[in-house]
Q: What sequence folds into this?
């Protein structure tokens, strides 16, 4: 069988050396000579020796071509037909758990020792590979290498540092086939881990290892590990409520310390514990044995005891601040003894400017904005003529339902507001084209009923847009967009309904039909509220105002390729490479602490905390581990009797390509042909006495 | 001959020198250095006698002290000075431009080295030296002279010679006689791919007119014994004719044919009264220079 049999057409190229040899045969070498006075013409003679040399060179060239063509054709042989040097060899896949819980006590050191023991016990013919497992990525630190190069694996082991993320065994096993690759040898899967109960997936079947893999656990955990950690911290009315949990079986006296922007502001002593000891259930006493699957989830809620500590916070300026809560003294797992919170001012304000406070448009807009729960916004309605323009900077965004009601001064101030980074949603109606619309190409009002033809769902305000096609447009203002404008919604006649334009550091969205019944029925459709929510979120950067995240989770940065930006981790290191051409709108933080996100003219903090599931050090039960190992399946089933399970068809993975070996053969033939041809040509040159 | 002299005269070393005059000086001085250390030769530059100055003599050799005392011009004469007129006949046909892959230089280059060395040697002995370059006929000629600067001009003419067309000794010898008015020592440098009888017929008149002839036949080592492992197509560099040659012919029959030809040439030279020397392009020049001096001594 061949992977690419079409290459056999290239066998026609063998005609080339055949032709060249025939040509060369008929044309002896030509040499200059001073005088032919003493020479006598003679016939071309070929000795048997020369004939043999000719055929040998021709054969080498033909073999070289055939081997090259075969190599490209990709011949496949069954694996059993490909001899291996060491049939008893194994691939030892060392999977190193570097989640947060592995930093408890001396688990890290024991894990290293276990890994080195596996490396040193590898025999000739074995292969070793090293995998680092934590968080959302399973990283192959060292690809499979023969055991003779175990030094490479040891060196790679030294590069693994303790992490802060959570390991999910389900993710580990479901991706194993990918990072193991097409292993030539049987695989021994060495999982070096504290085998945390909370690392188990929801579906036990997700723990199934790849077929043909032998699973071996190297447990570095302790059966009675106790941990005290902060589960969360909530700020309300000038106080921070710290939730502390402990699994220690003794009473502990600790202190909770609040630090704001690096300065300690509060400290309080408290007592926590002891956690109740789990009683061992025995069969026959009327208590059924707990289901080992369910116990992996339920026991997380059974162990440990909680307490709440309240700390008074001082008054701080209405700007974002970094609050860190610490437990003093820390315990053997220091990573969960700190909790981070960003203190931010109250919810963003939205200004709704209308011709009159009680207009329908204002009502629709404020109702939609106030109905939002995420983001939580506060709207204020003002008549266009009554607005105190000095307060514009207090608002995160402005919604203008009737731009023609704005004075020229108000229009100029609002333009400046947008220009300096503000945002604006404006609905057009019949009226003046001056003021804010001075540089817009506003044409006539179109009174023909039409419908929406195109919606740009790649834009954040329309990402979840459904139902636009049901909106009836009775009238709209015809606007000719500039080349730099982005048309987000277009009508059947191609006219834009929703346009986005950037103005300086800010941007504006323009709806070419007002929220009035005489113009459309948009406000009566469910899509209107969703549209207002997404628009408000987009205009106020609410999506980007997420100020908390989890290690290993997805953090929306709010950055865009147009604006650019940079992210700094808790240690002040740049997260985005300086040479990166694309600015990601989301990252996966790998450390706990405060991340700083800087974009054009703005900077904000995000508090990243560890996943509290990692703080629960309860180990998987032995029953669960046994059932996990029982999930192993062999690679190939053997053929049995008539009632046996049907034989699996050999898959492409069970075939080995010998193309590489053929390429090596090509190389050897090329060297031989070069030497033979060079000698043959040298022979044809004159040979001095 | 000292052990260092042959090293100075090898064609490979001479070919590395920058110009032909330097080649000539190196070859001759190296040869003479060895000569002075040899008891066999008494060649020297020691003063022998005065003779009256006649028109045409080189004024450099006028003894002005004698003139101051006697008001008469006398020319110094030295040991070895015989006032021999030396005429160099240089074959510049296409066959002389041949060099095998193992040879350091072409036959023509070797011939030029030899001609320049002989010219320099003759100049040192105050002999007037001339040059005729020929291939199918006389290509250029310079009459013998010992004037100041004539050596450099002669060597420049030799250096400028390049391989030309075919070879016609018969036509060339006919042209020689026009340029050889006075009795001279004629040195013919050629590969002599010709009928030996033609050579004899060409030399005999010269000898009968009182000229002394030395023939230097230049050949490449490989053309004397060519070896090919299989049939080759040989192309004549003068006529461009080609002939297919079997290696067996080269190995078994070409050598004897060549020896017969060389012997014929030697015999023809002897019958014509000329001296004959066979040289290959890998030989040092000292043998050629030695034979020349011997011949010159015998002549005087």
A:
């Amino acid at each position: 069988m061949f992977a690419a049999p079409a290459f056999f057409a290239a066998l026609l190229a063998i005609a080339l050396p055949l032709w060249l040899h025939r040509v060369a045969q008929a044309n002896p070498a030509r040499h200059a000579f001073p005088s032919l006075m003493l020479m006598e013409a003679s016939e071309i003679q070929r000795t048997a020796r020369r004939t043999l040399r000719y055929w040998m060179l021709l054969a080498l060239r033909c073999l070289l071509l055939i081997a090259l063509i075969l190599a490209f054709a990709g011949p496949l042989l069954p694996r059993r037909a490909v001899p291996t040097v060491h049939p008893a060899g194994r691939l030892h896949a060392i999977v190193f758990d570097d989640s947060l819980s592995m930093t408890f006590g001396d688990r890290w050191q024991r894990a290293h020792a276990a890994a080195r023991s596996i490396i040193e016990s590898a025999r000739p013919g074995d292969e070793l590979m090293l995998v680092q497992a934590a968080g959302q990525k399973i990283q192959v630190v060292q690809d499979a290498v023969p055991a003779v190069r175990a030094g490479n694996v040891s060196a790679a082991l030294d590069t693994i540092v303790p992490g802060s993320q959570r390991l999910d065994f389900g993710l580990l096993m479901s991706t194993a086939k990918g990072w193991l690759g097409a292993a030539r040898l049987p695989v021994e899967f060495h999982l070096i881990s504290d085998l945390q109960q909370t690392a188990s997936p929801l579906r036990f079947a997700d723990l199934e290892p790849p077929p043909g893999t032998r699973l071996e656990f190297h447990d570095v955990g302790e059966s009675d590990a106790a941990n005290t950690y902060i589960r969360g911290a909530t700020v309300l009315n000038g106080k921070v409520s710290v939730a502390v949990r402990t699994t220690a079986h003794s009473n502990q006296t600790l202190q909770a310390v609040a630090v704001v922007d690096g300065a300690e502001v509060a400290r309080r002593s408290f007592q926590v514990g002891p956690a109740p000891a789990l009683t061992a259930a025995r069969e026959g006493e009327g208590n059924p044995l707990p289901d080992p699957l369910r116990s992996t989830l339920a026991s997380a809620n059974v162990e440990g005891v909680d307490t709440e500590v309240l700390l008074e916070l001082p008054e701080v300026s209405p700007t974002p601040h970094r609050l860190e809560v610490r437990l003093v003294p820390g315990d053997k797992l220091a990573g969960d003894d700190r909790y981070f919170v960003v203190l931010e001012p109250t919810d963003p304000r939205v200004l709704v400017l209308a011709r009159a406070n009680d207009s329908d448009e204002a009502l629709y807009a404020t109702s939609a904005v106030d109905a939002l729960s995420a983001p939580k916004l506060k709207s204020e309605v003002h008549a266009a003529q009554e607005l105190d323009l000095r307060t514009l900077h207090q608002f995160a965004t402005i919604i203008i339902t009737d731009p023609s009601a704005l004075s020229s001064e108000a229009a100029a101030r609002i333009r400046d507001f947008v220009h300096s980074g503000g945002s604006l949603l404006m609905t057009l109606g019949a009226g003046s084209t001056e003021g804010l619309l001075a540089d817009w190409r506003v044409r006539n009002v179109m009174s023909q009923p039409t419908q929406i033809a195109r919606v740009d769902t790649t834009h954040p305000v329309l990402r979840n847009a459904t139902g636009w096609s049901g909106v009836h447009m009775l009238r709209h203002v015809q606007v000719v967009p500039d080349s730099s404008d982005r048309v987000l919604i277009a009508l059947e006649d191609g006219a834009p309904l929703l346009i986005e334009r950037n103005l300086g550091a800010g941007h504006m969205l323009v709806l070419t039909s007002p929220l009035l019944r005489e113009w459309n029925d948009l406000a009566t459709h469910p899509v209107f509220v969703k549209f207002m929510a997404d628009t408000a979120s987009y205009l106020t950067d609410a999506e980007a105002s997420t100020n908390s995240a989890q290690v290993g989770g997805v953090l929306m940065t709010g950055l865009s390729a147009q604006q650019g930006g940079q992210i700094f981790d808790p240690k002040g290191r740049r997260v985005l490479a300086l040479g990166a051409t694309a600015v990601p709108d989301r990252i996966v933080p790998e450390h706990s602490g405060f991340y700083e996100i800087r974009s054009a003219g703005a900077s904000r903090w995000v508090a990243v905390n560890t996943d509290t599931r990692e703080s629960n050090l309860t180990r998987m039960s032995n029953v669960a581990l046994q059932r996990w190992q029982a999930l192993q399946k062999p690679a190939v089933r053997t053929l049995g009797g008539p009632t046996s399970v049907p034989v699996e068809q050999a898959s492409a993975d069970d075939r080995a390509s010998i193309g590489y070996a053929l390429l090596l053969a090509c190389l050897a033939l090329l060297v031989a042909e070069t030497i033979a041809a060079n000698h043959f040509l040298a022979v044809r040159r004159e040979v001095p006495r | 001959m000292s052990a260092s002299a042959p090293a100075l005269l090898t064609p490979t070393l001479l070919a590395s020198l920058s110009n032909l005059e330097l080649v000539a000086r190196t070859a001759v001085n190296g040869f003479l250095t060895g000569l002075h250390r040899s008891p066999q030769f008494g060649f020297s530059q020691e003063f022998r006698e005065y003779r009256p100055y006649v028109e045409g003599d080189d004024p450099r050799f006028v003894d002005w002290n004698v003139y101051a005392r006697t008001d008469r011009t006398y020319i110094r004469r030295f040991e070895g000075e015989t006032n021999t007129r030396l005429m160099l006949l240089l074959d510049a046909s296409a066959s002389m431009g041949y060099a095998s892959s193992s040879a350091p230089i072409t036959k023509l280059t070797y011939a030029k080295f030899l001609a320049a060395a002989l010219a320099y040697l003759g100049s040192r002995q105050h002999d007037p030296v001339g040059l005729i370059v020929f291939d199918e006929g006389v290509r250029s000629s310079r009459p013998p002279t010992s004037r100041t600067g004539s050596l450099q001009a002669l060597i420049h003419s030799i250096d400028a010679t390049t391989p030309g067309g075919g070879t016609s000794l018969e036509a060339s010898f006919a042209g020689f006689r026009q340029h050889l008015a006075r009795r001279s020592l004629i040195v013919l440098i050629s590969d002599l791919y010709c009928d030996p009888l033609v050579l004899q017929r060409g030399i005999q008149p010269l000898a009968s007119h009182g000229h002394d002839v030395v023939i230097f036949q230049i050949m490449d080592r490989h053309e004397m014994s060519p070896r090919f492992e299989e049939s080759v197509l040989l192309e004549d560099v003068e006529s461009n004719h080609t002939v297919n040659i079997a290696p067996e012919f080269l190995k078994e029959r070409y050598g004897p044919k060549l020896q017969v030809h060389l012997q014929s040439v030697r015999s023809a030279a002897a019958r014509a009264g000329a001296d004959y020397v066979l040289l290959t392009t890998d030989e040092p020049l000292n043998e050629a220079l030695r034979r020349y001096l011997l011949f010159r001594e015998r002549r005087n």
In short: The radius of gyration of chain A is 38 Å. The first helix of chain A runs from residue 15 to 26. The CA atoms of residues 25 and 51 of chain A lie 10 Å apart.
